[in-house]
Amino acid sequence: MQRLYDFLRRHPTGVDTFWAVVLFGLSLLWVGSTYPSVDPPAAYGVVAALFSLVVALRRRAPEKMLVLAVVLGVAQLAFGIVPFMADFAMLVIIYTVAAHDGPRWASRLALLGGLSAATLSQLRWPVDNPASGAAQVFFTVIMTVPFALAWVLGDSLRTRRAYFAQLEERAFRLEQEREAQAKVAVAAERARIARELHDVVAHNVSVMVVQADGAAYVMDSSPETAKQALETISTTGRQALAEMRRLLGILRTGEHQEAGEYVPQPDVRQIEDLVEQVRGAGLTVDFTVEGTPRPLPSGVELTAYRIVQEALTNTRKHGGPDAGASVRLVYFDDGLGLLVEDDGRGAPQEMYEDGGADGRGHGLIGMRERVGMVGGTLDAGPRPGGGFRISALLPLKPAT
């Protein structure tokens, strides 16, 4: 049964043609049964054939078939062809044009023709023995109702289709917007993870390289110092692996894992541990905290930690062997201030102006992105007396 229904929906013109043939056959039977009261029968046959054509092509060319139906109606009035079975096609074409999403003039013409058809018919062929004018008016109204109902049903169907089409279009747009937002979120998350990986790898590998060089230098003269350096390398490597497992776990699942499975994200309180780790790698660092420490938003905490981490990593890379650094945290009422300075050689100018060429300067780019995400400001560049300076202000409320 479903196959038959699907077949009929795929071939609407064939279905309409079938009913057109049925209407034509019934019209000829009516003409034959009433002959010779209808004269000439050939004219009725031509009108029946043309009305059947209106039914057959109503969905393929609704406006043209409406015009043809109007012409046939006028011809009936002009040549005295009384209404008969074939005139049922007028109801069909009125419904079709009203339901069709076509030009509005066609729908208005169908309504006007339908409302005037019964009146014109009564004027052309009045009832044989009207009891009164009121009775004739009542009969005319009754004959007008089917035409009005056909137009109302068709127009209601057209309105309903337009409403559902609007809903589908809106759902499609919302789906596209959701997909676009999801893509943006994925890109932002991948960029964040890339920054995390850069910070983790650059910092920890830098510490491991310094410690390895120191261990190789004092291996023969001070085995105990070399042993401590190797232990620092081992601890730093494990920490790097743990953080990388956490980040790769996010990439695999697309979600943040439970705190017990991966290392928690660092915060401001761990900056002191970071400074101690850098001191253990051989860099002299002064660390001061001003104001009253208090809990901060997680985004601000992570951003502060990563800025200090990247700044100290850059000092080890570019400051030279005798460079020293200072880290200063200032708790304001409305935010957190960071100042990281060193007295080394400083980074090349192109690395803090445009990110540099050949992939250099990504650390400073990552800093600016992180600070921008929390609505803060960052200033990075050479100090007037030599060395490099990074200052940041991280507000407690994100930018709107």
Verbal overview:
Among the domains are: 2-125, no CATH class; 267-400, Heat Shock Protein 90. Helix content is 66%, strand content 9%. The protein contains twelve helices and five strands. It has a five-stranded mixed beta sheet.
Task: Give the tags.
single chain; about 400 residues; alpha+beta; Heat Shock Protein 90; five-stranded mixed β-sheet; 5 strands
CATH class categorisation of the domain at 267-400: Alpha Beta
What is the 3D shape?
A: rod-shaped
Task: Please state the second-level CATH architecture of the domain at 267-400.
Answer: 2-Layer Sandwich
Q: What structural class is derived from the secondary structure elements?
A: alpha+beta
> Given the structure, what is the number of helices?
12
Calculate the terminal CA-CA distance, rounded to whole Å. 59 Å
Question: Roughly how much helix do the residues carry, as a percent range?
Answer: 55-70%
Q: Radius of gyration over alpha carbons?
A: 43 Å
Named CATH topology of the domain at 267-400: Heat Shock Protein 90
User: What portion of the residues fall into strands of 2 or more residues?
Assistant: 5-15%
Low-pLDDT windows of residues: 255-263, 354-360
Mean pLDDT rating: 82
Within the largest sheet, what's the order of strands?
1-2-3-5-4
How many beta-strand elements?
A: 5
Q: What is the CATH superfamily label of the domain at 267-400?
A: Histidine kinase-like ATPase, C-terminal domain
What is the N-to-C succession of helices and strands? HHHHHHHHHEHEEHHEE
Largest sheet: 5 strands, mixed
